[in-house]
Design brief:
By secondary structure, the protein is α/β, with parallel strands linked by helices. It has one domain: Zn peptidases (Aminopeptidase). The protein has an 8-stranded mixed beta sheet, sandwiched between helices. Strands 1-2 form a two-stranded antiparallel sheet. The chain has a two-stranded antiparallel ribbon with strand order 11-12. The site of zinc ion has 6 residues, from strand 7.
Length: 276
């Protein structure tokens, strides 16, 4: 197999490299995305792993680290490109979105965008430098704040049925017992998510792997979900106040289960306020 070139950097077959993808120059520093490129010894498809398009969803970083550490490129057919922190500015502020007062603040709703907000430039860099190499996509997100349950989602309503079927096969192959079929185009997320954009424009099958839990360990999780959030119960459709008040009710998308308010101790969502 020949070498793989990502962002003007060459990665030889059978090796791993960390590749810097320049995005833009901020006032005081450059904004870059870093991708671990694992180039297999023999030919095969390329799997792109994205994580932290939302800056407060850090659990998947550990998963990508283990994947990169454990995969031996000399035994790999094809390639893995792993991006642990796809949205560094949002990670720095610990928020879902970049706090730049953008018209389009959510980097997982801005693929294909025409503007130059930071939240447009980040998906553009992923598009131009990574999606052109990609055959399959896994985009990691949280499975909603406060949820201990993980899930795997695929897009069921691509215009190309074959892409939808391949995505479904990926979701089942992932091996987790909870699978959601998202209506990403007729539903709320839309064609400018990573999955919607890659699947519709480039026919790249993909899934969202939703990581469960709050990421603080079982003890902290139980504390936040249980002791510190009295009066709230979760249901599959959303969150409601047990006292019957409507003040904490929020509109809930079909496949999200939002906790009303924030986990204790720290503001964890950005201005756009969604989870997942
Ligand atoms: Zn997310």
């Amino acid at each position: 197999m020949s070498e793989l070139r990502v962002a003007d950097q060459t990665v030889k077959a059978g090796s791993k490299e960390l590749v810097r993808i320049p995005v833009t120059q901020d006032l005081v520093m450059s904004v870059d995305i870093y991708a671990h490129v694992v180039a297999g010894k023999t030919d095969g498809p390329t799997l792109l792993l994205l994580s932290m398009l939302h800056g407060n969803e850090w659990f998947s970083v550990l998963i990508l680290r283990e994947i990169v550490r454990r995969i031996d490129p000399s035994n790999l057919a094809g390639n893995i490109i792993a991006v642990p922190v796809a949205n560094p500015p949002a990670m720095v502020t610990g928020t879902r979105c970049i706090l730049d007062d953008s018209d389009e603040p959510d980097a997982n709703r801005t693929f294909g965008g025409i503007y130059d907000w930071m939240s447009n430039q980040i998906p553009r860099a992923i598009d131009e430098e990574l999606l052109r190499h990609t055959d399959y996509l896994i985009d990691y997100h949280v499975s909603d704040w406060g949820s201990t349950m993980a899930d795997v989602s695929y897009t069921a309503d691509y215009s190309d049925r074959e892409v939808a079927e391949k995505s479904r096969a990926m979701a089942r192959a992932y091996g987790f017992p909870v699978v959601h079929a998202l209506r990403i185009f007729s539903g709320l997320r839309g064609s400018r998510t990573s999955l919607g954009y890659a699947g519709e424009k480039y026919k790249i099958p993909g899934i969202v792997a939703g990581i469960g839990g709050l990421g603080f360990g079982e003890e902290q999780e139980a504390k936040v979900v249980g002791d510190e959030r009295p009066g709230h119960s979760r249901s599959h459709e959303g969150t409601k106040n047990d006292r019957g008040s409507s003040e904490d009710l929020r509109p809930v998308p079909p496949h999200s289960r939002l906790l009303a308010g924030q986990p204790a101790g720290r503001r964890l969502s950005g201005a756009c306020g969604w989870t997942g």
